[in-house]
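Fold this sequence, please.
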Amino acid sequence: MKRWFACFNELSVKPLCQTETDAEQRLRDFVSLLREIRGHTSVTKVRHADYMTSISLTDTMTMQDYCNAHINDPIAILLMSSFIHPQVDLDDDKSLQSYLDTTAAVNFPNGNSINGDGFNAAYCQNTFCVGFVSDPVWNDDFFNLTITSNGKSKVVTWACISSLQFYSSLQEHQHRRPAFEQWLQQLDPVELVSSNQDVENKPINIRDDHGKAELTAHAKLLCQNQYVEGVLTSLAFKPHAKNYIAKIYDDGTIDIVLRWEDEGFSMRVKTTGRNVLETREIAKILRIKFDR
């Protein structure tokens, strides 16, 4: 899924800056962050519920005031070209209805919980938030949200990128981008591809060993599934295994255990999964259909 916008975290506006100099530095840091985001993702726009006049920097200055006073400054130009409103695409009926029916409360480490409109919009449109580092809490990249919709609540983890350290090359920050990218992947609907092999042509390689008959019979069942390419090999017995799915690999293979057999006969299955997310989804399908 190609994301072209993030949502502005309005909770990061406060505390306000005390001086115009501090306000300008806040905007400089934010613009630097936007440039990094543009360079590393497909995001080029930031959605906000209102005009920039509603984003305060100090008690007397808004983001719009700054842009008006520095109309030819690169910072002002990038800000004016990046921000769009409203918070949700009005032509996207599904996201709009979800946004109207949902609230997103940010659960802070100190125990406080505050509704975040930007987080709500980001959640309903499967994107992330961006904001200011007005408080040390916004140096984190992920936040627990309580999502409430139609009377039901659940807790999810959602990303808000505010700190320039997110793109730092220092060792202590190098884990941040991979964690974020993995989180983004999990938001996208998994699109599985089917095998182009006929069922009878899918290979089944089982060692001539105890349990061959049981494994072969189950392998034939598995090969009827559209996401199974074949069985690569039988594996060591796992008599104490409690789960049908023993292990999932990045290359589309899955270790399966006939856990209802005392010996725990096991085999490695090749699927059409192109990454661990797709393979995990296929494993879930196989478990639901073939586990006992």
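DSSP finds eight helices and twelve strands in the chain. The mean pLDDT is 94.
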